[in-house]
TrEMBL record:
Amino-acid biosynthesis among keywords: yes
Family: Belongs to the alpha-IPM synthase/homocitrate synthase family. LeuA type 1 subfamily.
Protein name: 2-isopropylmalate synthase
InterPro entries cross-referenced by the UniProt entry: 2-IPM_HCS-like, 2-isopropylmalate_synth_dimer, AIPM/Hcit_synth_CS, Aldolase_TIM, LeuA/HCS_post-cat, LeuA_allosteric_dom_sf, LeuA_bact_synth, PYR_CT
Region called Regulatory domain, residue ranges: 399-522
Name of the encoding gene: leuA
Chain sites annotated for binding Mn(2+): D14, H210, H212, N246
Function summary: Catalyzes the condensation of the acetyl group of acetyl-CoA with 3-methyl-2-oxobutanoate (2-ketoisovalerate) to form 3-carboxy-3-hydroxy-4-methylpentanoate (2-isopropylmalate).
Record field: transmembrane: none
Cellular component per GO, a single term: cytoplasm
Pathways involved: Amino-acid biosynthesis; L-leucine biosynthesis; L-leucine from 3-methyl-2-oxobutanoate: step 1/4
Length: 522
């Protein structure tokens, strides 16, 4: 009998904390649906206390999912209440609460005297806060996870003490994060074995691990922990997450599958859904998967040298330890074009993992036709980027009706824009240092606003000369920021779309008057 390893996916929480990766509610809902198809055991859907949009996303995912849905909360009552508000519609809710346990974190994050004057006093306070948080969470639901933040650098005796205490208070999973990605595989494995042997009630909870990739060791550390008694592994699609990211789900799962000769573990992951999930996450977050990334990179199954190609033709196993089909890499790519109908588009999007309501299909089809007119052949990656663009739209969106640019080596760049918004039309022209500057100035004039762009970038989102360009614009207004994303085969148009999307989100924010202080948007 194989032993089951629980796969806890944190793409929508830690993954979303990747710089520049914020996802909107609809995108999170789509990713959660795909994670369910992938067969993850737990979806960590967000951190509800951190913003109303986070809370809404967890709520929407909870309401429709049959998978265990976890919500993160600091070890304080208000966070736990916010998590419960978001989770209460879930069939299988899990409250995940955490507090720092390493001396370095305690000294830095709990410096105030109210936590105690000496390190020892502070440790006592933290232990009490952890136990109180678990006990409070337990009044809402039975499935409680506790995480000892920076456990990788925590004193083993104290880690064992706090683990025993939270299990006694009702924690059903205790997570041991290597928050800073500092540990070494054999060292981390020993830590897990040592913890399990020190904690008398460890058998009453699942021991989980959550490894960061600062030294590129997150997957190795996670596997070593499994060999030493951990039975839940926390990871993210494409390994996205804080700084260098989290352990990558696809690498852990495929390592366990391909090297099943070395252990007795299995996961419930439908590995054929891996590639689709990876592409969806990349499309929505805008974080490109590096070409040589294991399992899901563009080159993971390509063979360049003649010797390799020859070997592959004779026997694929010569240079491949798994098949591309086993992780769902499509054999052939179906190309759509301007003659493709709405049904064809819907079917292709469904094959790529997207579920669209009729109204959404209408607007996606309109954009698809605009792109197909310019690009002739529309590939799967174009569709993924298009979906990322469409799902990011605010409901109060400004619509770019018209854009005309005049630019060249011997002329002053000039832009004219026409923008529609709730039956009104705004039209203006402006000159600028370059065509994008002229375009942004024209938008600002048309909408009567001062320049608000704090960050701007443009990249090629798909391959080839006819690639879709993707522009990202961040605007800041006091302590609030709004991100807009635009795509087009024309990067100036993509930039204009990104800017007006960010402005639409800003408008929506102030109309709803939501008291947020963190980034939101695409
Ligand atoms: O890295 C970490 O310690 C975390 C915890 C909140 C689980 O993300
Ligand atoms: Zn983390």
């Amino acid at each position: 009998m194989k032993e089951n390893i629980l796969v806890f996916d944190t793409t929508l929480r830690d993954g979303e904390q990747s710089p520049g990766a914020s996802l909107n509610v609809q995108e999170k809902v789509e990713i959660a649906r795909q994670l369910e198809k992938l067969g993850v055991d737990i979806i960590e859907a967000g951190f509800p206390a951190s913003s109303p949009l986070q809370l809404e996303a967890v709520q929407r995912i909870s309401d429709e999912s049959g998978t265990v849905i976890a919500a993160l909360s600091r070890a304080v009552e208000n966070d736990i209440k916010a998590s419960w508000t978001a989770l209460k519609g879930a069939k299988k809710p899990r409250i995940h609460t955490f507090i720092s346990t390493s001396d370095i974190h305690i000294a830095g994050k709990f410096a105030g005297d109210r936590y105690g004057r000496t390190l020892e006093e502070k440790r006592r306070t933290i232990l009490k806060m952890a136990v109180d948080a678990v006990a409070f969470a337990k009044t809402f639901t039975s499935d409680i996870e506790f995480s000892a933040e920076d456990a990788g650098r925590t004193d083993p005796g104290y880690l064992a003490e706090i683990t025993e205490a939270v299990i006694s208070a009702g924690a059903t999973t205790v997570n041991i994060p290597d928050t800073t990605g500092y540990t070494w595989p054999s060292e981390f494995g020993r830590k897990i074995a040592d913890l399990i042997s020190r904690v008398p009630n460890s058998g009453n909870a699942i021991i989980s691990v959550h490894c960061h990739n600062d030294l590129g060791l997150a997957v190795a550390n996670s596997l070593s922990a499994l060999e030493n008694g951990a039975r839940q592994v926390e990871c993210s699609i494409n390994g996205i997450g804080e700084r260098a990211g989290n352990a990558s789900l696809e690498e852990i799962v495929m390592a366990l599958k391909v090297r099943s000769d070395l252990h007795n573990f299995q996961t419930g992951i439908v590995t054929e859904e891996i590639y689709r999930t990876s592409r969806m996450v990349s499309g929505f977050t805008g974080i490109i998967v590096q070409p040589n990334k294991a399992i899901v990179g563009e080159n993971a199954f390509s063979h360049e040298s003649g010797i390799h190609q020859d070997g592959m033709l004779k026997n694929r196993q010569t240079y491949e330890v798994m098949t591309p089909e086993s992780v769902g890499v499509p054999k052939t790519s179906i190309v759509l074009g301007r003659h493709s109908g709405k049904h064809g588009l819907k079917a292709r999007l469904e094959a790529l993992g997207y579920t669209l309501a009729d109204a959404e299909l209408e607007s996606v089809y309109r954009r698809f036709m605009e792109i197909a007119d310019k690009k002739k052949e529309v590939y799967d990656d174009d569709l993924r980027v298009l979906m990322g663009d469409e799902l990011g739209k605010p409901s109060t969106a400004f619509v770019l009706d018209y854009l005309h640019i005049n630019s060249g080596t011997a002329s002053i760049p000039t832009a004219t824009v026409r923008i529609r918004h709730r039956e009104k039309v705004f039209e203006e022209s402006a000159t600028g240092d370059g065509p994008i500057d002229a375009c942004f100035r024209a938008i600002e004039r048309a909408l009567g606003i001062e320049s608000m762009v704090s960050t701007y970038s443009v990249r090629s989102a798909t391959a080839g000369r006819e690639a879709l360009g993707e522009a990202l614009v961040r605007i800041s207004d006091g302590s609030v920021s709004f991100n807009g994303r635009g795509i087009s085969t024309d990067i100036i148009e993509a930039s204009a779309r990104a800017y007006i999307q960010a402005l639409g989100l800003r408008l929506e924010h102030f109309e709803n008057n939501t008291p947020e202080t963190i980034d939101h948007g695409v």
